[in-house]
């Protein structure tokens, strides 16, 4: 007897929940112990499920890593999807980038760990290229819109490259030695970089 | 019979060579496979020596990691110790930072790997703080001297913070996806950041 529509829908929901549970467990393992804690044994134990479920839902442990990387960009996509009308686009973006969630030790440890894996993991490299293109487009759009609002002319491509790398580097410093770089220091660094090109920013 | 002076000196030389050989092997392992390839077994095999020699010369595998981190700053210290009279201080520094050695995939993979370990390794954290203080002082001195040479007033502290993070972030991007960021792109990003504050730079 074929599954009814509601049974199939229930099964899909369960599969989605299970994937999310495994992604959560993977994120906890990586935040705690870096890539050495990202093993089938440790992730399955953290999720409280059998080892076989990882391969069942993600093909392999590498597939789970790709899913986790995509998930890390989710928060970013949410921010870009809901622009704040009361701020310049780049201001809203800086607010979000250096807020407690994205600039917290746990999130930054996960980013740093995943970056360290990209060079030696082709699946993760492909996911990075896909996500990075969207991220860069959003940054370029925010810079262009801010310049236009302030009546400035900018060469957006090199300005975006530097801004993306500055944000990454601020995350590295914050992750390595939180006491040496506050969120306010990070916002100031962005202002020092951007204001000569974009005019005054309220960040 | 006590060792003669020349025997003692010979023994010290051998110890130094052996330490360097083990550091070289550690660097090769990390460049090839990240932190998961940095094990007593793999480093000893790479160096072609017995496993016990690592503990003998470095106390532990963690001690070897600290020695390797200190070694990574060596090239930097050399550059700062021999300023080029034909360039502004910050120009010479940018030249070196984005040259083939320091901006190569191998060196950047090692940096990224070591950064990922600092948060969870107190010994490495202490070494980082010691080395970072000297690195930051050099950057601040180069920025201050360049501003003075160009007759500019700068607020050196936030400018240095942003520059250090920009350089780190450029290294991350280059390491993750070399095709998306050339050494010339990196120099341009530095110019976009610094020239509004320091005046024209020939980099």
From TrEMBL, chains A, B:
Listed A to Z, the keywords are: DNA-binding, Repressor, Transcription, Transcription regulation
User: Where would I find the HTH tetR-type domain in this sequence?
Assistant: 16-76
Question: What SUPFAM superfamilies does this protein map onto?
Answer: Homeodomain-like (SSF46689), Tetracyclin repressor-like, C-terminal domain (SSF48498)
Q: Which PROSITE patterns match?
A: HTH_TETR_2 (PS50977)
Q: Name one GO molecular function term.
A: transcription cis-regulatory region binding
Q: Look up the DNA-binding region in the UniProt entry and give its residue ranges.
A: 39-58
PANTHER family (UniProt xref)? HTH-TYPE TRANSCRIPTIONAL REGULATOR RUTR, TRANSCRIPTIONAL REGULATOR-RELATED
Q: What is this protein called?
A: TetR family transcriptional regulator
């Amino acid at each position: 007897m074929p599954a009814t529509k509601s049974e199939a829908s229930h099964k899909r929901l369960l599969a989605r929940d299970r994937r999310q549970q495994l992604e959560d467990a993977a994120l906890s393992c990586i935040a705690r112990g870096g890539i050495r804690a990202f093993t089938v044994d440790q992730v399955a134990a953290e999720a409280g499920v059998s080892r076989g479920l990882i391969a069942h839902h993600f093909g392999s442990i590498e597939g789970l890593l790709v899913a986790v990387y995509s998930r890390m960009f989710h928060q970013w996509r949410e921010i870009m999807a809901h622009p704040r009308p009361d701020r310049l686009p780049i201001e809203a973006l800086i607010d979000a980038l250096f807020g407690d969630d994205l600039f917290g030790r746990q999130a930054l440890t996960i980013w740093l760990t995943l970056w360290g894996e990209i060079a030696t993991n082709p699946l993760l490299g492909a996911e990075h290229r896909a996500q990075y293109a969207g991220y860069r487009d959003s940054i370029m759009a925010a810079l262009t819109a801010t310049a236009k609002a302030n009546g400035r002319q900018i060469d957006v491509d090199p300005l975006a490259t530097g801004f993306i790398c500055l944000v990454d580097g601020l995350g590295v410093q914050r992750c390595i030695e939180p006491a040496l770089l506050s969120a306010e220091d990070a916002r100031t660094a962005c202002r020092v970089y951007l204001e000569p090109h974009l005019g005054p920013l309220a960040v």
